[in-house]
Amino acid sequence: LAKTTQPISMDSYEGQEVNITCSHNNIATNDYITWYQQFPSQGPRFIIQGYKTKVTNEVASLFIPADRKSSTLSLPRVSLSDTAVYYCLVGSNSGYALNFGKGTSLLVTP
Amino acid sequence: GAGVSQSPSNKVTEKGKDVELRCDPISGHTALYWYRQSLGQGLEFLIYFQGNSAPDKSGLPSDRFSAERTGGSVSTLTIQRTQQEDSAVYLCASSSGGQGNEKLFFGSGTQLSVL
Fold first, then answer.
1. Residue B90: what pLDDT?
2. N-terminal to C-terminal alpha carbon distance within chain B
3. Which among A50, A43, A58 has a CA at the least distance from the CA of A22?
4. Is the pLDDT of residue A75 over 70?
5. What is the mean pLDDT of residues A5-33?
6. B4 CB near a chain A CB, below 8 Å?
7. What whole-number percentage of chain B has pLDDT above 90?
8. Which residues of B touch A42 (CB under 8 A)?
9. Dihedral through CA B104, CA B78, CA A42, CA B7, nearest 10?
């Protein structure tokens, strides 16, 4: 499974756009990129998934460059409730995703 | 059920005792995963079930840890002779097929404290 690297922590003010980048240099052809969000005392929750280019849903956008060696989760106009840990995973339909790593701890302040 | 259910939500036990943690996955989900999360750490993979079979037990930390799944549904994680280093949140997740590009649905976890 492709190893991922993401920043340990990030800080932001309310109303700003937050971009969290994940590196996955050895991503395989069949791998998808999936992001999860985890609040304290809860299990992780799926946010968004993509294979290439750009994916957008009601929560976030995911930008994936042509070489797919990295991806960026974009959270528009964050609020205090977006304070959480964000995990980047890479996996394919030939295997199951195991490695959540330590994620990126995002702190949003007023 | 509507989501993944785990019980108990909290468990306090004494060192050396055995504990059983239960996971009730989303109805129809064939894949079930157990993870462990220590304070301030990421998720550590423990074991994966596809149906009642566990093709990957590589994450179980020691032979004190075991898990089973019956009827392709409920799973139990058993820790024998608990140690203080077993204290953590134990998370269960399920998915519809057990593939790496599938969405995992997590329960709220069991907070285990070994005194």
1. 97
2. 33
3. A50
4. yes
5. 94
6. yes
7. 68
8. 106, 108-109
9. 110
- DSSP letter at A69? S
3-state DSSP call for residue A81? helix
User: For residue B59, which residues of chain A lie inside 8 Å, CB to CB?
Assistant: 98
A39, β-bridge pairs? none
All residues at 6 or more sequence positions from B62 whose CB lies less than 8 Å from its CB, including other chains: none
- Taking only residues 61 to 90 of chain B, the set having a beta carbon closer than 8 angstroms to any beta carbon of chain A reads none
CA separation for the pair B2, A59 (Å, rounded)? 22
pLDDT at A96: 59
Report which residue type is found at A103: G
Query: 3-state secondary structure string, A8-68?
Result: CEEEEECCCCEEEEEECCCCCCCCEEEEEEECCCCCCEEEEEECCEEEECCCCEEEECCCC
CA dihedral over B57, B59, B64, B69, signed as positive or negative: negative
3-state helix, strand, coil in chain B (%, to 5): 5, 50, 50
Is residue A92 pLDDT above 80, yes or no? no
Give the pLDDT of residue A47. Answer: 95
Of B87, B90, B93, which Cα lies nearest the Cα of B109?
B90
The encoded tokens of residue B61 equal 């930390």
Residues in chain A with CB shorter than 8 Å from the CB of B31 are 96
With H, G, I as helix, E, B as strand and everything else as coil, classify residue A104: strand
Q: Whose CA is closest to B87, among B35, B23, B38?
A: B38
